[in-house]
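Hi R.,

As promised, here are both runs. First protein below:
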Amino acid sequence: MKEDYLDDLLTIPFIYSPQISPDGKYLAYSWRNINPNIDVFYVLTDASSKPVALSNTPEMTIVRHFYPKSDAVLVGEDKSRNERVRLFRINLDNPLEMIPLTMDTPPFFLRGGRIDPSEKWLIYGANYSLSEKKEIEPTYIYKHNLDTDEMVCLAKPDKPTWLFPDLSKDGQNILYSRKKYHPKGEQKWVVDIDGDQDREILNFGEKARVFASWLPDSKRIVFLTDTKENIEQKHYSLGIFNIESEEIIWIIDDPSRSIEDFSVPRIGNYFLVSEYEKSKEEVSIINMETLQETKLPRIAGNYYPIAPLNSKEWIGKYYSSTQPDDIIKFNIDNIDSMNFKSLTDVWKQTRLQNDDLTAAEDFDWKSHDGVNVHGWLYKPTKTNGKTIIYVHGGPTAHSEDAINSEIQYFTKLGFTVLDPNYRGSTGYGFTFEDSIRDKGWGADEQEDILSGIKTMISRGIAVSGKVGITGTSYGGYSAWFGITKAPFDIVAASAPICGMTDLVIDYNTTRPDLRPLSAEMMGGTPTEVPEIYFERSPINFVQNIQGKLLIIQGGRDPNVSPKNVEEVRKKLIEHKIDYEEYIFEDEGHGILKVKNQKTLFKMLADFFEKSL
C-alpha cells in the first residue's frame, strides 16, 4: 500500500511560471509530474479546451514568455540539469517542435529571455565576454539577432549580481540590476535597445535594496525599496518612477503594512501588491491610472491573480496542502473557492483525492532569544513516534500551506513533520526576513529551528532522540548544521540534500552570479571575514556528530557543487564518522525527476525509520 501511495503521490502536478499571452487568449505554464520531468503546456483562458502539451522532453523545460503576436512561447530547457539553459521557440499551432534560438550547453549561465516587438531580437543576460570569448563573473546584457545569431552586448556591469533583464513593452529599453557598492545594496539601471544610453535610474543608498518592473506604458516603473532619503526602514515602500521626468510618486509608504512583493500582469491596467501574515498572502489590485487599491479577501488555501480577462474576471493560481496547483478563472467580487472555474481539471490528473492528503496546521514557538517563530505542522493519522524536520531552502523564501510530496509521504508512513519558517524567511515582514543578515548564516535562524524541535519535545509532540532533519539547498545546510551542532537528543539523524558543507568552498565553486548572496549574508567575502566563514561551516565540526548521517547530492549541481561533498567526505573519514551517501548523477540542484524522487523519498523514509 505504501508503494502504491508513493506512486500515486508522484502523480500530483505542480505549476510553475504561468504566463498570459498578449492577446489574453492563452495561458502557458510549466507542469511537473505530468511527464517524467517538467514540460510546458498551454490552455485557453475561456476554459473551452483541455491543456495542450507544448514540450515533451526528459529535461526540465520552463516557459519564459509569449511572443508579441501570441502565436508562440519562448521556453528555456535545462538539458543536463547544470543550469546552462538553452532557449527555444515553440509555436502554438505546432506543439512539441522546439526551435532552438541559442547555443546548446552555452559556456555561460543565461538569465531571463524576452522577444522584442519586431521579433528580431532576443534579450537576455549572460556572464560571458564576447571580446575575450570566456565566462566571467558579472552578467552582461545582450541582444541576440534571431536572423543572424549575432550577439550584441548592450551593458557591462562590473560586478556580479542576480539579474533578469526586463524589456519594456515598446521594446525600446531594458531594465536591469547592478550591485556597485555593497553586497546588500542594489541599483536599477536602464539601457536602450541600441546600447547607446546606459544610465542609473534608482539608487536609494549603498545598502538599499530595490525591486522594480516596467508598467505597460513603457515610461513608468513600479518599485519597492527599503530605504528613503538615505534612511534605512523596517518596511518596504512602494513607488512609481517616470523615466522621462525622473519623478517618483509614492503609492504605499505604511510601516504597519507587511508588503513584500508585487507583480505586473502582461495585460490589463493593473499591478498587484502582496503583503503577508504568517506566510499567508493577501493581494491588492491597484489601478495604474487612478491608483485605486482593491484588497482581495483571504480564504482557506492560497490563490493568486495572474492577469485580468476583464474588469471583474481574472485568471489565477489556487492551491493548498490538500489542493494541487490549479489554474482558475474567478470573479474578484465573489472570492469563493466553490466558484472557482478550473482550467486544468487538476483532480483528473492525479489518482489521489483531497482526503488522501495531510493538512498543514499552524505551529508557533519562541526562539532562544524570545523571537516568535511560525511553521507548518503535519500530524499523521497514526504516529510511529518519530519526527522529521523538513527545512525549506532559500533562505529568503518560505514554506506555505501547499502540497509538499516529500512531507505527505513521511506523514503517510507515520512520521510527524515540522516545516519551520525560520528567521530570514519571507512571508513574515521585512524585519523578520532582514534579521538573518544581522549575524549571517548559521546563527539565529538555526537556533529558530532547534528551538522548534525543543518546543515539540516539551509539548509531547516529538520524542527526545527520535528527531531527524532534512532539506535541500539551504535546507541541506541546515541539516548539516543540526547534526554537527545539536546534541543527539535534539537531532539524532540528518539527511542533507545538496547542502553547503564548507562556505568557503561553496563561495569559490558556485555560480558567479550567486556569490554576492553569500557576501551579503556573511558580511563579506571569505577573504574579508574568514573567521565567520570558518565558524559557520559544518565541515569544521563533523567530529561532533553523534547521530546517523545520509548525504545526498546532485552530480551536476552548479549551485552547491559536488565539491562540498568531496571535501566533507575527507573530514568524515579522518574523524572516523560513519555515513551513507547517494549521488544522483543525472540531477542538479535538487532532485526533481519523477523516477529519482521515488528513489529519494523511499531512501529518506527508510533512513529515518531505522535511524530514529
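And here is the second one, sequence first, then its C-alpha cells:
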Amino acid sequence: MPSNDPRSTPARLTTPATAKLPRSFLLLLGVIYIFSGLFFRDPWKTDDVAGLATMLTALHGTGHALLLPQIGTLAYAQNGPLITWVGTFSIWLFEPLFELFTTPLDAAIIASRLPNLLWFGLLLWSVWYGTYLLGRRPEPQPLALPFGGEPTVRDYGRMIADAALLLTIATVGILWRTHETSEVPALLAFQALAFYAAARMLDRPFSGAITLGVALAAAFLTRGWIGSLPIMAAAACLCAPRSALWRAKHWFIVSAVICAAFILLWWIPADRVSPYWTHNWWLWNIDSFTWPRYRVVLGILRDLPWFLWPTWPFALLALWRWRSWLFAPHIWIPAMFLLWPLIIMLCLADPFEPEYSLMAVPSAALAAFALPTLRRGVVNSLDWFAVMCFSLTSATVWLGWIALQTGWPHQIANNIARQTTGYTPRLHLLALAMAGIITVIWIALVRWRLYVKPQALWRGTVLSASGLVVTWVLLVTLWMPALDYIRTYRPVSAQLAAALHEYQKPGECLRAFDLGLGQRASFFVFNGIKLSYRPDCTLILQQTTPRQVARGEEAFADPAAARVLWTGGRAADRQELFRLLRVQ
C-alpha cells in the first residue's frame, strides 16, 4: 500500500506552477490538430481506404455487408463492424449535403471522416477527465510546504489533466492515425474511455462499471481480439488485491456482463447470416497470435520509442519516481493500460502502428504525473529541447517546400524529384498564407517562452504539443498536394476503369492475381471495380513489378496463353505495375 508519510511523495510543487491554462487554448489546439489533414485529400492505402471501402459497400451493397464488413465482394474478416456502422450512417446522412459543393465521391469521402471528430473528441475528453479524477486524489498530491503555498487539490488535478491532454496531442506516432478512416481512431477513443471508467469507479463504481463494460465491448466491435484483449486484460488486473479498486472488484463482473451482452448481440446474428465470414474472422484473429519471436521483439524495440515520442521517457521516469506508490490509482491504472498492450504485442505475428497506438494514452497519463517530480532546471531544459526540435522540423518543412518549388538547394530538390516523378508543383496562395500564419504563431510562442519566463509546469507540454501541431499544419498546407499525388490511386483507377470499359465483354468477370488489399479497396472506392473469385474468369488484373516483367517472372501461367490488354501504375511508384490480361 502507498505510504501514509507525506514526506515520501516525490511531487514538489508550488501554487504558481499550477496556474490555469486557458480552456480556449486547449480547444483551439485540438480543433487545429484534428481538422488539419482530415479533409481535402484522397484516402490512402491500406487502412485508410479499406475503412472507407467497407462503408461504401455497406451503403450500396448487400444487406449483410452492414453486419459483416466487406470490400466489394471481398469479406473483410479482420476488424469488427463498429466503424463501418458509424461511417455508413455518416455518409448516408451528410453525403447529400456535401454533394451540393463537390462530386458524389468526394462528398462520400468527406462524410466518412466526420466520425473522426467524434473519436478525437471522446479521446481527449476521456484522457483529460480520467487523469483529472486521478490527479485530485490524495495519493499524488505534492508535499505540503511548511508555510503553505502548495496548490489546491483542484488546481493540481487540473494541471495534471491539461498536461496529459497536451502530451497525447504531442505523441508523434498517432498523428497520422487519428486522421485516417480506419479502426485506430475509434480504438484509441474506447481505450481512453476505459481508462476514464476505471478512474471513475474509484468514487462512483456503478457508473464507472457501466462505462467500462460499454468501452470494452466497443473496443471488441472495433478491432476484435487484437484490439480489445490488451484493454480487457488491463481492466481485469486493475482490481489486484493491493490496489484501490480491490474494494470495487464485484463491479467488474457487471462490466464483464455488459461487455459480453453487446458482443453477443452482434456475434449471434453474424454467425447465422454468414458462418463463412465468422469462421474466417476467428482464423484471422487466432493466426495473428504466436509465441514471441526475436525479429518481432527487435522491431518493437526499434519502432516504439519513435512512435511514443516524447512521452515514453517521462512515463518510465514516473514509474521510477513513484515506485513506492506503485499500487496507488494514479500509477497502477495507467501502468496496467501501458503494460498489457506491450505484452500482447510481443505475442502477435506482425505488430505495427495500430497495436502501438494502444500505448499512447497510458504513456501520456503516466508522463503527466512525472512532471511534478522534476527539478526546475530539468523542466527548463525540456522546454528548450521542444523549442529547438520543432523549430528545426518546421524549418525543414519550409526548406523542402522551397526546393520543390524552385529547385534549390539542388541536392534536396533532386531527392524530392525522385520521389515525386511526374508531379508538377503548383503555388497555392491560400495554403501558403496559412503556412505563413502558423509559422508566425510558432515564433510568437517561442518569444513568449523567451521573455515571459512562465512558472506554470504545463509550459513544456504546451510547447511540445504546439510544435507538433505547427509542423503538421505546415506539412498539410505546403506538402499535401505532393503527398496526395504520391499516395493516391485515383488516376490509375480511372485508367483501369477506362480499359475495362473498352475491353470487358458483356457478362465477362474480372478476377485478381497478387493484388494487395489496399489496391483492391482503392479500385473499388474510386471507380466501383469489383473483383470476382470465379476461377473461370477470362479477364485478370495482375499486380507485379517492372523488374519481374523484365525478367519474365510475372507470369502465373503459360505466357503464350495470356494477352496483355493494358498496363498502368502510379508515376511516383516505380516498384508497382498493374496489368489487365485476357487468358484463353
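A quick note on the second one: The chain has three domains: 6-15+27-38+113-373, 376-487, 490-583. Let me know what you think.

Best,
J.
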